[in-house]
Backbone:
């Protein structure tokens, strides 16, 4: 059907205009199929029959099929059960030939098919295999007013070729028109497609236009929002608050730990100091009655290590806490950065070297002062030393007894007789007193020496403990001071690094953003141009479509004008 | 001023009250002819589109998915969408985009602003789903005054202009885009009593769309011998065509087939939508609603004849098939009302919003005393219970608010924690919604103890749980663990997401 070549030509023009439309592939494929339809010269006809067709009708159909070979006619046979789906490129027959045998329920399927394609079937030829035309007329009435029907009795149809069959009631010119209408109907869906394509493309181009306007506005807004000084100020405040809170936490922690009596460090020191219960003893050459005492080395080692461990434990806890707090802060900041589209910071980028705990421990965990004392050597020395305590009593007793003994030695003095008498008593009593004193002295010494020994040990132990306590306190205090200082420095340094990292990320973002916004602006301009061009292309394509419509309508009108069936 | 929002599965409608107390719809800010917003969203980078505009974007962004029917995911812990940066978006966040869009419309339409905001929920929504709606409002920065069930809102609207319904039994038949609800109501003066509720989950316009889309897919296979393509552009186009054809089929006055050429990919084929096939399949869906109606009425010892009026609301109720189906079921004495089925819920919500806090007094809206009933049976299922026997605490259709308790034995020595699942269900043999697990303990006690779990079903349908020591009635701490998911819902993160996108910018 060469006179329809213009459809393909116009479709090509439309395809060129629409270019990269979402339907480019579809248009191309449709045009290929249009060419295929247009390139054909056959006349397609549908033969509709019942699935339980009788032998007479079967015979007629076989003869009809044989007659169309190389005749320019193509017949497609459908039974009442077939519900085919039409694909574009299928030929739409304008003539249906119904093989009507009897009044059967199957006929409903045939009627339904004709009604489904009532716009395409211009003529339905009913080949009546009944003796009368009653059933055929009844059948024809069901097809409605849009379809023209012709009833041909089977006896008139049998033995006729397709051409002869058609020409029984129709002139050749009318058949030629029906052939054309079949082609027009086959091409007609193209106009439905074009309608949908143009609707979609127009909608798309409007949407693209709106989107571009929106994007331009967003770009402008983002450009205005590129100044992040307020945001950075907020970030700084967050960082400063967190850093000072963190510093305060550690300062107050170590203040609490070092509080006298109730502080954990103080209690630890006391507990460790209280473990002291013996000394190492060493004989002194210059003081034969005394021994020199010192604290056992292993005790001191254990003491220092306990203090060190206690401090170390706290430092470990600090490291964990501080690192988790740091990570929390980073997460908090990253959440804010993410909203602004700023690259997140990582702990690795903003992490100063953590203060060396060992250095702190090594610097302060040692004993600066060592205890050294004396104790009286156990045994006779204790008695000799203890006897010193009786010196006064002995002197008084000796002082009293010596003059009386002297008097008792005077023989010739009369007036001293009473003294002599008394001195005799004293002479004999002195022995008793002396014995008594010696006994008392022995008993008293035996009672006092162990007590004195304990007192002396306690005195020395207290001295030693005081020294140890002072040393422990020094170790705790100095380590705490040094550590909190180190931590503060570290926190400050870390916070500065975070701040610097964020500032760098913001700068990077601003740089990238500025570049990106420039690119976006250029892209938006390009899109605007491209949308404008595309809109013009759609308008041009619509002109081609209108021309196509007009010409096609004229052709159809021309063919239908004098169609007399 | 007030704002009532009907957050529907397919369409969202907002309404307010005019100065004389008449409910009016809030139109789209850019097109006053558009009085409802399709419940759709599309996210592209840092831009989001909600409503009408998103509807047409699939042609511009063929690789993008239009997020629709997200309302069906309320109450689940699974994200409905992942954006370009792999951020998970939950149904609540998508709903928040829609609510923000509606809010923008309202801000422009209502010069005096609004104070009370009420959002409607389907009557059959369980506790978690209701809370999802509240969460969506929070994400959209909407200070919610309350939630009200859709059928009740529709009944309020209907009763606002029809005063003759007092002491009548009204069946509100809400067949929407994604859900079917039915509610039996009586009204006396300003008191609205809900007698019973029922419904069918996941039954609505979407299922009608599927009849059409399946026909298209079948035709594609028949015509071309290939399975229907599943790329996003084609799927979006299919969804849109199916909806259009469905609307057309639903509105047909006579038995008539529809023929449509379909353009997918490089192929074109003609589908003949046969009315009888569509009507037959649609009837099967409508029959499911009838089963629910019968079940609900039977639970009260009633039949359809006892109902005085049937108010039909929801998009699917506009179908002639649905209307005619019920027209054939009712007697001459019964009234079948299909008055403003698409907007009555939003308008009723606006009326309800005005009745709260007396803000509608100036507009002549009286306060409404709402007496509702529990939608579901509520029960507890202790861990390791043989045969999964649920301890029923609250029967469905019990007047709200209602609370009930169950005492459990707990020995901290033998079991570190006591885990009990909170469940809602219509029929324990069918679908049981497990809302979450109540975890009590561990506690510092060496002796066996008794624990009271108190469940309260509030007037707005949500559930509150308390745990007490049964011996001294002291409240005990417990954890409520919702259904586990691979993706954790985090309010702040979702709010940041919602706020980070430019929504319908400049449209």
Residues:
């Amino acid at each position: 059907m060469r006179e329809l070549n213009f459809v393909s030509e116009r479709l090509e023009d439309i395809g060129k205009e629409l270019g990269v439309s979402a339907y480019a592939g579809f248009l191309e494929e449709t045009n290929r199929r249009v060419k295929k339809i247009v390139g054909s010269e056959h006349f397609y006809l549908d033969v509709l029959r019942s699935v339980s067709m009788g032998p007479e009708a079967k015979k007629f159909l076989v003869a009809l099929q044989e007659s169309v070979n190389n005749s320019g006619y193509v017949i497609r046979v459908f039974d009442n059960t077939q519900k085919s789906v039409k694909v574009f490129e299928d030929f739409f027959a304008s003539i249906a030939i119904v093989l009507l045998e009897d009044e059967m329920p199957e006929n409903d399927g045939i009627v339904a098919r004709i009604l489904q394609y009532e716009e395409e079937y211009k003529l339905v030829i009913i080949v009546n295999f009944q003796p009368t035309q009653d059933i055929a007329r009844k059948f024809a009435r069901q097809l409605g007013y849009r379809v023209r029907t012709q009833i041909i009795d089977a006896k008139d149809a049998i033995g006729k070729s397709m051409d002869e069959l058609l020409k029984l009631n129709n002139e050749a010119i009318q058949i030629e028109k029906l052939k054309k209408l079949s082609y027009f109907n086959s091409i007609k869906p193209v106009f439905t497609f074009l309608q949908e394509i143009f609707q979609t493309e127009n909608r798309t181009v409007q949407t693209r236009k709106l989107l571009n306007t929106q994007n331009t506005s967003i770009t402008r807004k983002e450009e205005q929002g590129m100044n992040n000084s307020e945001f950075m100020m907020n970030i700084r405040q967050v960082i400063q608050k967190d850093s000072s809170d963190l510093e305060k936490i550690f300062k107050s922690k170590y203040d609490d730990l070092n509080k006298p009596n109730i502080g954990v460090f103080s209690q630890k020191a006391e507990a460790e100091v209280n473990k002291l219960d013996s000394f190492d003893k060493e004989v002194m050459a210059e003081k034969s009655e005394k021994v020199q005492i010192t604290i056992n080395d292993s005790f001191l080692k254990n003491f220092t290590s306990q203090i060190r461990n206690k401090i170390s434990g706290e430092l470990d806890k600090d490291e964990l806490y501080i690192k988790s707090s740091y990570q929390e802060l980073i997460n908090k900041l990253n959440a804010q950065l993410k909203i602004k589209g700023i690259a997140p910071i990582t702990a690795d980028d903003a992490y100063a070297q953590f203060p060396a705990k060992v250095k702190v421990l090594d610097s302060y965990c040692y004993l600066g002062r060592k205890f050294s004392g004396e104790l009286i050597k156990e045994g006779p020395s204790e008695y000799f030393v203890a006897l010193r305590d009786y010196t006064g009593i002995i002197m008084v007793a000796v002082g009293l007894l010596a003059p009386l003994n002297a008097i008792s030695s005077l023989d010739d003095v009369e007036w001293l007789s009473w003294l002599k008498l008394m001195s005799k008593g004293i002479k004999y009593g002195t022995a008793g007193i002396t014995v008594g004193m010696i006994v008392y002295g022995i008993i008293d010494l035996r009672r006092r020496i162990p007590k004195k020994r304990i007192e002396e040990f306690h005195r020395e132990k207290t001295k030693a403990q005081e020294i140890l306590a002072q040393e422990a306190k020094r170790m705790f205090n100095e380590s705490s001071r040094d550590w909190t200082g180190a931590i503060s420095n570290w926190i400050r340094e870390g916070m500065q690094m975070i701040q610097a990292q964020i500032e760098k990320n913001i700068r990077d973002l601003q740089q990238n953003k500025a570049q990106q916004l420039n690119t976006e602006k250029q892209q938006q301009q390009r899109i605007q141009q491209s949308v404008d061009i595309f809109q013009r292309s759609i308008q041009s394509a619509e002109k081609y479509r209108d021309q196509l419509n007009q010409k096609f309508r004229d052709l159809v009108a021309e063919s239908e004008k004098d169609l007399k069936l | 001023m007030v704002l009532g929002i009907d957050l529907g599965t397919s369409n969202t409608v907002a309404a307010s009250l005019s100065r004389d107390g008449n409910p009016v719809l809030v139109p789209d800010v850019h097109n006053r002819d558009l009085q409802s917003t399709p419940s759709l969203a599309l996210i592209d980078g840092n831009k989001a589109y909600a409503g009408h505009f998103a509807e047409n974007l699939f042609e511009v962004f063929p690789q993008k998915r239009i997020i629709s029917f997200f309302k069906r995911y309320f109450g689940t812990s699974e994200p409905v969408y992942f954006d370009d940066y792999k951020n998970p978006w939950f149904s609540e966040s998508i709903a928040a985009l829609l609510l923000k869009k509606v809010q923008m419309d309202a801000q422009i339409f209502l010069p005096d602003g609004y104070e009370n905001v009420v959002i409607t929920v389907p009557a059959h929504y369980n506790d978690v789903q209701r809370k999802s709606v509240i969460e969506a409002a929070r994400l959209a920065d909407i200070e919610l005054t309350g939630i009200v069930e859709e059928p009740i809102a529709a009944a309020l609207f209907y009763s606002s202009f029809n005063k003759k319904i007092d002491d009548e039994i009204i069946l509100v038949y809400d067949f929407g885009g994604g859900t079917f609800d039915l509610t039996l109501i009586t009204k006396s003066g300003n008191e609205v009593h809900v007698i019973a509720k029922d419904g069918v989950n996941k039954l609505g316009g979407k299922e009608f769309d599927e009849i059409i889309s399946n026909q298209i897919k079948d035709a594609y296979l028949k015509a071309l011998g290939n399975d229907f393509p599943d790329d996003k552009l084609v799927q979006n186009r299919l969804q849109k065509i199916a909806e259009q054809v469905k609307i057309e089929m639903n509105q047909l006055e006579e038995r008539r087939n529809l023929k449509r050429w379909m353009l997918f990919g490089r192929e074109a084929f003609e589908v003949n939508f046969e009315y009888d096939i569509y009507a037959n399949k649609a009837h099967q869906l409508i029959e499911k609603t009838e089963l629910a109606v019968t079940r609900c009425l039977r639970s009260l010892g009633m039949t359809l004849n006892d109902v005085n009026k049937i108010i039909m609301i929801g998009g699917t109720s506009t179908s002639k098939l649905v209307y005619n189906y019920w027209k054939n079921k009712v007697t001459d004495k019964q009234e079948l009302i299909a008055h403003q089925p698409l907007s009555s819920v939003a308008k009723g919500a606006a009326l309800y919003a005005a009745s709260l806090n007396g803000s509608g007094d100036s507009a002549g809206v009286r306060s409404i005393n709402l007496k509702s009933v529990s939608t579901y049976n509520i029960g507890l299922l202790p861990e390791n219970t043989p045969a999964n026997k649920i301890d029923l605490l609250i029967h469905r259709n019990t007047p709200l608010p209602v609370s009930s308790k169950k005492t459990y034995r707990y020995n901290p020595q033998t079991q570190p924690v006591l885990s009990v699942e909170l469940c809602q269900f219509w029929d324990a043999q069918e679908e049981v919604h497990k809302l979450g697990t109540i975890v009590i303990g561990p506690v510092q006690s060496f002796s066996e103890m008794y624990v009271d779990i108190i469940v309260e079903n509030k007037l707005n349908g949500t559930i509150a749980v308390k745990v007490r020591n049964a011996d001294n009635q002291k409240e005990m701490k417990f954890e409520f663990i919702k259904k586990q998911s691979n993706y954790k819902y985090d309010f702040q993160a979702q709010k940041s997401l919602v706020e980070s996108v430019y929504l319908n910018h400049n449209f």
Notes: Chain A has a mean pLDDT of 86.
